[in-house]
Amino acid sequence: MSSLQHLISTPVGYVVWIAAVALVILNFILLSVLIIILALRKVMGAIQSRIGPNRVGGPLGIGRRWGLGQTAADALKLFVKEDVIPANADRFLFWLAPILVFIPAFMVYVVMPFGNGLIARDLNVGIVYIAAVTSLGVLGIILGGWASNNKYSLIGTFRSAAHLVSYEVPLVLAMLGPVMLSGSLRLQDIVQAQDKLGWFILPQAGFQLLALIVYLPAAMAEVNLTPFDIVEAESELVAGFNTEYSGMKFALFFLAEFANMFTLSAIATTLFFGGWLAPWPLDALPFMKSPPVSLLWFLGKSTLVLLFLMWVRSTLPRVRIDQLMDLCWKFLLPVALLNIAWTGAYVLLFR
Amino acid sequence: MLSANLWYNLAFIALSAVTLVSALMVVSMKDMVRCAVFLSFSFIGVAGLYILLHAEYLAMIQVLVYVGAVTVLIIFAIMLIPQAARRMMTESATQRLTGGMVGLLVFMLLVSVLLRFNWSPRPGADAQPPMEALRTFSMQLLSTYLIPFEVASVVLLVALIGAIVLAKEEQNAA
């Protein structure tokens, strides 16, 4: 470890170190998005009594029945597609928007507590950092829709401006419950606190069920998952804010969306389900806190949350925009405030 | 700690450049939406400077509020302006003059403050920032500065109610 620290202390080593961490995170995002897209299509297919992708296999035709190579083929197709820019588009903003959407989706992973000691940078304002950085993505969505100079894109943009900004409020308030219980904004501290007290979703550790009830719909709205995907409602708006996008620019939007999906599941895991900690009877085993095993627990729990989101996505119909706003301001916001009051009372009375 | 200083200086130069160049773009661009985009870049640059000053929490709130909400609302408002008016932004000679005067006055004010301020560290303060600055900050906010804090929240509440009342009246009139 000391040789590594020595390496980081030199200017060149520091740059190399940062580049290496960024590369690992980028590869993780690409790989997880590849898997999530295929899983989403298969899971949605199964739930809706369809088959889903079943033609393209991996190398040597492995897994053709499960469509293992489908996402890779789709990604390749997007790479070689013509990059169309509408004649009346604002070319600079049209080019800038996908970048502004992707960079925040990538930056969030800097503070993601993947396992015991597996975190790129454990910021002391970790959870606020996540809220701040995810709020940057809205800007890219709005600019992309506006720069396209297309009425469907513009309607999608108007909707997103109203809905993404509104849903940020209950989302952040829901995150406050676990923060109050652990007394820290640092993500590894939140996980460590759950090691001592128990997972925050459990009755004996603070019972953040209300927070979870607020967090999940708000998170789904933030990443435009189907019951709340009025930003790109296919049946009304063609494809919403990214109607005019094609090729790699579209791929960047798509990538960011799925990366955000994993991000929000991972944050739900960290805040409510004990992060990289093993569940109750197993957590006494010493090797459960070693980096690789804790990483597996983290990924496993996040996948379960993700599967739940996919289940909701393929079951419920899309809401109307007025219903969406009502849900946010008249249900989620009061419940989130109630949860903060409950958590405060809990910390005062039962600690 | 030569390398730490080097990185600090490089980061400071880069962030200042982002802030100043974006700020220049805000006032020189013709298209208002682009102005708003560069305004958000300028805000991000300032947030970076806050991080260099070990005010991480302030930096995050700066991004969350100014980029995530204020700029988005500015762009939202600009999109409701007719396109012709938005793309052909011109200003008259008097507007330029008054704008320049106000800019000059603010600049002079800032310079006079900068020249008067005593930049040497105060005797009691230690050179290193406190490790848990955020905790200290929160404690101060809810004890020593409780009344200003509450007054600020009441002001915000008044603004909120005022906005609702104004919107309601317009709805009734229409």
Q: What does the model show?
A:
- The complex is a heterodimer of chains A (351) and B (174).
- With 351 residues, chain A is mainly α.
- Chain A folds into two domains: 1-80, no CATH class; 84-350, no CATH class.
- Helix content of chain A is 68%, strand content 0%.
- Chain A starts with a helix and ends with a helix.
- The model of chain A has no long low-confidence stretch (mean pLDDT 82).
- Chain B has 174 residues and is an all-alpha fold.
- Helices cover 80% and strands 0% of the residues of chain B.
- Chain B is built from seven helices and no strands.
- In chain B, helix 1 (2-28) packs antiparallel against helix 2 (32-52) and helix 2 runs antiparallel to helix 3.
- The mean pLDDT of chain B is 82.
- The A-B interface holds A 9-11, 14, 90, 92-93, 96, 123-125, 128-129, 131-133, 135-136, 138-139, 142-143, 146, 154, 157-158, 161, 165, 168, 185 and B 3, 6-7, 31, 33-34, 37, 40, 56-57, 60-61, 63-64, 67-69, 71-73, 75-76, 79, 132, 134.
Brief descriptors of the model:
heterodimer, A: 351 residues, mainly alpha, B: 174 residues, globular
Rg measurement of chain A, Å: 21 Å
Overall domain count of chain A: 2
Q: How do the SSEs of chain B run, as a string of H and E?
A: HHHHHHH
Q: What are the segments of chain B in which pLDDT stays under 50 over at least 5 consecutive residues?
A: none
Are there runs of chain A of 5+ residues with pLDDT below 50, and where?
none
Q: Hey, which two chains have the biggest interface?
A: A-B, 30 and 25 residues
Distance between the termini of chain A: 39 Å
> Please, how many helices of chain B?
7
Coarse structural class of chain A: mainly alpha
H and E order of chain A: HHHHHHHHHHHH
The largest sheet of chain B, given as strand count, sense and whether it forms a barrel, is:
none
Major β-sheet profile of chain A = none
Estimate the global geometry of chain A from the Cα principal axes.
Answer: globular
- Rg of chain B (CA only): 21 Å
Oligomer: heterodimer
> How much helix, percentage-wise, in residues of chain B?
over 70%
- State the secondary-structure class of chain B: mainly alpha
Number of helices of chain A: 12
Count every beta strand of chain A, where a strand is a DSSP E run of 2 or more residues. Answer: 0
Task: Tell the overall outline of chain B.
Answer: globular
